[in-house]
Amino acid sequence: MIRVYILIFIIAAVFWFKVFLQKSSDERKPYIKKSVLYAIALSFLLLAIIGRLSWIVAALSVLMAFVLRFLPLALRYAPQLQRLWSMFRGRGNFTAGNSGNAHHAGVMTAEEAYKILGVSISATRQEIIEAHRKLMLKNHPDRGGSSYLAAQINRAKEILLKNK
Length: 164
Fold this sequence. Notes:
The chain has helices spanning 2-22, 25-50, 54-76, 78-89, 101-104, 110-117, 125-139, 147-163. It is mainly alpha-helical. The protein folds into 2 domains: 2-75, no CATH class; 78-163, Helix Hairpins (Orthogonal Bundle), CATH 1.10.287.110. Helix 7 (125-139) packs antiparallel against helix 8. The chain is elongated.
């Protein structure tokens, strides 16, 4: 039976390659993508027909359970991950040409402190303390947060409370 499958695979591959060579260079990439999707679908169908699909279903179930288990954790750090990604890509608040250059030199402006804590300029002393407390609960290093972010949050609180 395996010989039949190999023969069918070889015939399909020759046919696919013949059609592939007839396509222009612009049409080849979509053709490859479509062909890969068809190949995956046919593989699943074949495995289901011959009764060998159970290990794939088990692996997908484990993967889904893993993703669902760690999705809340990943989403918890989503804002920090987005900030780090934007800094890495050079589009963050602290890129060249922005007022964030002072941040890299160790100096934080009051404007940056307001942005870090997420409070308005007219925030009261109590609002600043509450915003600091909420951010530290999410980002404390003892709870898996970043020590860098915790230091920035603490520095922002100090700057804003000194001004109030």
